C-alpha cells in the first residue's frame, strides 16, 4: 500500500515571530505617520487661526481709520482735543484717530431742522501695547481705548467718561524677525514698536501698518507658530482743522502768533496778537429754536426762498451756538500756557458773551493764560447758553477794548445785528457820543490808538448764517461787522 505523508497546516514559531514583528512595525509606522499628520494638521490649523486673528485685527483698525478724520502720531496731541483725553497708563502709545461727529441711534438720522442730530466724540481712539497677561512668554497685547459699540453697531457714548479698553490681539511679538513694510519717501519715518511697524503720511491721513505675532501657547511641541500681515488705508472724512479758509498769507508769519503748527485759528480767523478778546453772541438768534428767513444770493444780492421759508441754520450738524462753543473750546485748548515764557510773549485772554447785556469771563479785564485761567475759560463756556433775549449790544465792550493795553486783537462773532448803531450821551464811545459806533471806533483806532504805544486794535469778525460782512448780501442790508473790520490786518468772514 502507498501512504502519503500528511500535510501540516499553520505557521512555525519563527514565522509567527517574523509576522508579528512586521505587523508591529507596520502599525508603529502607521501610528507615527498618523501622529505626524495630526500634528501637521494641528499646526496648520493653529497657523491659520493666528493668520485669521491678525488679519481680522488689521481689518478692524482699517475700518476705524477709514471712518476717522485724522491719524494722530504723537501722544502729546491727544490732550489737544480735551484735557481729559488719555489712554491706559500701563501701555505704550502707538497711534490714535480722531473721529467725526456720530449718530448714536437710528433716530439721530431723523433731521432736526435741515440737519441730522450728531454727537461729538470728545477724545480720540488710542491704540497701544502692553505686556500680555495670557502668556508667560515675552509677548504683548494690542489695546484699543475708546468708545464701545452696541449690538446695532453704534457707539454707546461719545463721552470720554465711558471710554473702555479692549484687547484686540494677544501674542504680539517682542521684536520683528521679518522685513519691515516699505513706506513712501515723503511719508514720516517708519516706527517699529515691538512686533508692530507702521508709517503715517505727512498730512496724517494715511497709514501703512504691519503686525507680527505668535500663538499665545507658544506653538506646538517646540514648533513656534508665528505669522505676519500688513494693510494700508486712509481716512475718508474731511478734517476741518486742516483746511485753511483764512485769507492770510502763511508765507509771511513773522508778525503772527505761531503755536501748534499754525493752529491758533478759530473759524478761519488766526491770531495776530498774544492779547486777544473774544466777543460772542449768545442771544436767542443763536438758538436752534429761532427760525431765520431762508435766502440765497442771486446776482450779488440776497433773495428770499419760500420753500422752506424758515430754517434753523446748522454747522457740522450743530446749531449756531453749539458749534460756536464747541469750536471755541477746541481753539482755547490749543493755546499755549503762559507759565514759563517771557512777559512779552504771554497770552492775555478775555471772553465776553453778549445778549443785550454782557457777561465777562474775567471781571477785571484780560488775564494771563495760566492753567487755572484756561480751566476757568472752558468752564465759562460750558455754562453759557443761548438766552431768550432777542437783541445784541456789543458797542460798550468794543469801546472799552479800544482803551485797554491788554487787548491787541478782538474777534467778534454774531448771527444778528445790534439793536442800535448810533452813539448817544447815555452810551458814549471813547469819549465820543456823536455818530455811528462803527465810524467812531474806526476813527479812534486810526487816529488815536494806532499812534499810542499799544498800537491799533485788530478787529476781526465772524458772521454766522447772515452775511453782515457785505451790505447787499443779507436781507437787512446791514454790514456792521464788515465796517468794524476795515483795518489793514482785519478780516470779516461769513460762514453759511
List keywords for this structure.
five-stranded antiparallel β-sheet, 6 helices, seven-stranded mixed β-sheet, Rossmann fold, alpha+beta
Structure description:
The chain has helices spanning 13-66, 320-334, 371-382, 395-402, 437-447, 480-484, and strands at 70-72, 92-98, 125-131, 140-146, 164-172, 191-193, 196-200, 206-214, 226-234, 265-266, 269-270, 275-281, 292-293, 295-298, 301-304, 310-311, 314-315, 318-319, 348-354, 358-360, 367-368, 409-414, 458-464, 492-495. By secondary structure, the protein is of the alpha+beta class. It has two domains: 45-238, no CATH class; 244-495, 3-Layer(aba) Sandwich (Rossmann fold), CATH 3.40.50.410. Strands 12, 19, 20, 21, 22, 23 and 24 form a seven-stranded mixed beta sheet that branches. It starts with 12 loop residues before the first helix and ends with a strand. Mean pLDDT is 83; it is low at 244-258.
Task: Give the DSSP E fraction (strand runs of 2 or more residues).
Answer: 15-25%
The biggest beta sheet is recorded as: 7 strands, mixed
Gyration radius over CA: 35 Å
Give the CATH superfamily of the largest domain: von Willebrand factor, type A domain
Gross CATH architecture of the largest domain? 3-Layer(aba) Sandwich
Query: Count of DSSP helices?
Result: 6
Tally of structural domains? 2
What is the CATH topology descriptor of the largest domain? Answer: Rossmann fold
In whole angstroms, the N-to-C terminal distance is 132 Å
Number of strands: 24
List low-pLDDT spans. 244-258
Shape: elongated
Which CATH class of the largest domain applies here?
Answer: Alpha Beta
The topology string of helices and strands comes to: HEEEEEEEEEEEEEEEEEEHEEEHHEHEHE
Averaged pLDDT: 83
Helix content: 10-25%
